[in-house]
Design brief:
It is a single chain. It is built from eleven helices and nine strands. The protein has two domains: 162 residues, Rossmann fold (3-Layer(aba) Sandwich); 109 residues, Nitrogenase molybdenum iron protein domain (Rossmann fold, 3-Layer(aba) Sandwich). By secondary structure, it is α/β, with parallel strands linked by helices. Helices cover 42% and strands 13% of the residues.
């Protein structure tokens, strides 16, 4: 994640942890099983897997749920540390994306088990790690199975509900994968401002033709060299790419130039977000992104 709209420098912020609705305990209340996720993305997945359980059975807390906050630079609070110290399961992205979780674990002395999405993804050894693994549906399936296994071990009385939820979630993720599979073989060239959506695009069979120096620079919040910027802009008048996918939550002159170049040359520019939009769960969010990408190509 690079520069946020309206955020120049991130300073220490108050906790954004909030318990999710449904089967979870209300904010500030104790639950039988406390789960803490680094971001609302993983909290949403856990909430879907625990839906329908008796009230207060599972408490699910997201440390970051505000799209203006960059997990790379987040400065945790004492309240976050308290949440981690009470957690019986911790879910983190890993790969350097949310290192504050490990800092909190050490500070609190927590020995709770940790589900690390990057470690489960199989991408940890990639030469150039794209840490945005929640756009990689096989990884999400692995994370969901680990969450369900934990819940089954700690709540045997509700095993039937948990297994039903797990099966329903898996079916929905598999539908997303089936949508991706419909486009494989086309080898359509696409461009991105950041690596954020690349797992999803690759699963659709699309080829990312963006110069890596450009997307890496935007990701790091710096400017690409004039040569690299021009190589990126040249993708559009030549129609080397059929689609641009950009991160709506970042801004900068070079990003704006790339979006303008796509639009001027009749190439669809599809915006995606890095965190959950308001009033959407994880599955709804990903379904909408896939629909937008497919619509952009047509």
């Amino acid at each position: 994640m690079s520069r946020r709209r309206g955020i120049a420098v991130l300073i220490a912020v108050a906790t954004t942890a909030a318990a999710l609705a449904g089967c979870t305990a209300a904010a500030g209340e104790s639950a039988d099983i406390d789960i803490v996720a680094s971001t609302d993305v993983y909290a949403s997945i856990a909430e879907r897997l625990a839906v329908g359980l008796p009230p207060g059975r599972v408490g699910i807390t997201s440390i970051i749920g505000d799209p203006s906050i960059d997990p790379h630079e987040y400065e945790a609070s004492a309240r976050n540390e308290l949440s981690i110290s009470r957690a019986e399961l911790i879910i983190e992205n890993g790969g350097g994306y949310d290192d504050f979780v490990d800092t909190l674990r050490r500070a609190s002395g927590s020995d709770a088990p940790v589900i690390n999405a990057v470690a489960l993804s199989g991408h940890a050894q990639d030469a150039e790690l794209n840490e945005h693994v929640w756009f990689d549906f096989p990884t999400v399936e692995r994370v969901a199975r680990r969450i369900t296994a934990f819940l089954l071990a700690h709540d045997r009385a509700d095993a039937q509900i948990l297994r039903r939820n797990a099966a329903a979630f898996a079916r929905e993720v598999q539908r997303l994968e089936a949508t991706e599979a419909k486009h494989r073989g086309a080898s359509v060239g696409v461009a991105v401002t950041e690596l954020l959506p690349v797992y999803l695009l690759q699963a659709c069979g699309f080829v990312n033709l963006t110069p890596p120096e450009f997307s890496n620079a935007i990701e790091e919040g710096t400017d690409a060299s004039p040569r690299v910027l021009q190589a990126t802009l040249d993708l559009f008048p030549t129609h080397a790419v059929a689609l641009l996918v950009y991160n709506e939550q970042t801004a900068g002159p070079q990003t704006d130039q790339v979006i303008a170049a796509a639009t001027e040359n009749g190439i669809s520019a599809v915006g995606v977000t890095e965190t959950l939009p308001a009033n959407l769960n994880y599955l709804q969010w990903m379904r909408g992104i896939l629909q937008d990408v497919v619509a952009g190509l047509s």
